[in-house]
Inverse folding.
């Protein structure tokens, strides 16, 4: 009988959490939509597509900060900013490398997109372990998650091998 009561309580708790999550997402959607509309009217006429990108990026910020505040208030849990900054630095570095290399490439746009994606991926896989944004256990977890993709996982393993060596070297240097 005890197990049954605990099960009912956990079901009620789960339903309560779902209701709270729905309320938060509904409020965040309204806030994000309002911010996006304001930025659309202000940024799209002078900046065009860049204005759409900036508006989309900025629109998510208020709901993100409100969500972080709400989680901190109710659960006393916050983001790991050190890891987030490392990931930001790694992706920014990879984006800059990609941009600089694509400046000199004059081919069709779809070819630039494919080559740019490959350059970004290779640069990120090299930079992330160097600055500690990805450690060997992260690479092992990714390898395990992607192992069911057949031939794609074999290609990805080729990319992960140098990243794993960089992570090992970086770990030995810091110990």
């Amino acid at each position: 009988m005890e197990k049954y009561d605990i099960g009912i309580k956990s079901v009620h708790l789960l339903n309560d959490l779902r209701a709270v999550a729905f309320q938060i997402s509904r409020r965040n959607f309204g806030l994000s939509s309002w911010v996006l509309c304001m930025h659309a009217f202000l940024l799209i006429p002078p900046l065009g597509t860049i204005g759409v990108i900036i508006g989309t990026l900025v629109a998510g910020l208020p709901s993100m900060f409100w969500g972080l505040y709400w989680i901190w208030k109710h659960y006393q849990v916050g983001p790991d900013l050190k890891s987030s900054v490392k990931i930001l630095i790694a992706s920014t570095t990879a984006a800059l490398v990609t941009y600089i290399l694509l400046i000199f490439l004059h081919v069709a746009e779809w070819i630039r997109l494919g080559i740019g994606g490959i350059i970004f991926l290779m640069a990120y896989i090299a930079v992330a372990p160097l600055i500690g944004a990805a450690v060997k256990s992260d690479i092992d977890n990714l390898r395990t998650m992607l192992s069911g993709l057949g031939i794609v996982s074999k290609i990805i393993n080729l990319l992960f091998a140098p990243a794993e060596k960089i992570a090992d070297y970086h770990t030995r240097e810091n110990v």
Q: What stands out?
A: The chain has two domains: 1-79, 80-175.
